[in-house]
Amino acid sequence: MKSRSYLFQAIYNFGHISQFALYIVKGIFKLRWRFRLLLEQMVSIGVNSIPITAVTAVFVGMAFTIQVVREFLRFGAGDMVGGIVGLAVWRELGPLMTGTVIAGRIGAAIAAELGTMKVTEQVEAIETMSQDPIEYLAIPRVLSLTLMMPLLVGLADILGFFSGLIIALSTGQLNPVAYFQSAQNMLMASDITGGLIKGLVFGFMISVIGCYMGLSTSSGAKGVGSSTRNSVVYSLIAVFVMNYFLSLVLFK
After folding, report:
1. From 44's CA, which of 94, 139, 174, 177 has a CA 20 to 30 Å away?
2. Structurally, how many domains does the chain consist of?
3. Going by C-beta distance under 8 Å and a sequence separation of 6 or more, which residues neighbour residue 220?
4. Which of the 8 DSSP states describes residue 237?
């Protein structure tokens, strides 16, 4: 019975989040949101996320390349390492690890911030001033993360690829010319743009889920914690599921 209730709750939340996302999209095209708030959120969400994104990308790229180099050198295919690392990083690892990091950092922060404003009646105060809370609070956050996410993914891709180069050169059996040559031969423009499109979609989903969970918070401090947890869980599930379907569509 408990598992069934969880399933019904998940379906209920999915429907409401979808409606909320449509409302957000309509609000974006109405152009009633404030550009100053957008810039503030772009700095808070995007620029401040660069350090954690960079650290994650570097070490994931190095860890992946270690495994690739070992196996490819064993079979005498060291000249393909750069291409394999490039494909893996640009297509999957860069967008996926950035989405995971941002879901944990930004998705939780948005839900906690808006949830606190909700339980302390700051959202109601905005409504009494004839302001739409979604246009004032949600749209700048959604739009800023949607715009900044491809940039973060691009940064992660570049750092992951070059960290792989460092590991490849450290073996003493590969040279940078072969690394870049194989990447040039195997990578296509669609591989790069496909990863950036994934970032765009992930940013929109994470921010929408975070805003919805925050604005639907109730029951005081306990509700804020629950909304924050649900935001991270739903965001991660959405990123992993959508990553699969986007890979099917973008990389045929």
Report:
1. 94
2. 1
3. 119
4. H
The pTM for the full model equals 0.90
Residue 134 backbone dihedrals phi, psi, to 5 degrees: -70, -45
Q: How far apart are CA 121 and CA 114, in angstroms?
A: 10
Tens of pLDDT, residues 48-68: 899 999 999 999 999 988 888
Structural domain for 75, as ranges: 34-250
In a domain, 17, yes or no: no
Tokens of 189: 């423009």
**Hey, how many other C-beta atoms are within 10 angstroms of the C-beta on 223?**
17
3-state secondary structure of 129: coil
Q: Is residue 7 one of the residues assigned to a domain?
A: no
**Residues 97/60, Cβ–Cβ less than 8 Å:** yes
State yes or no: pLDDT of 2 exceeds 70. no
pLDDT digits (tens, 9 = 90+) for 82-109: 888 999 999 999 999 999 999 999 999 9
pLDDT, one tens digit per residue, over 6-30 is 667 777 778 888 888 998 998 888 8
- Containing 161, the helix (H) or strand (E) segment is helix 139-170
Dihedral in degrees, nearest 10, Cα atoms 63, 69, 70, 74? 170
Q: How many CB atoms lie within 10 A of CB 180?
A: 15
Residue keyed to tokens 């591989």: 191
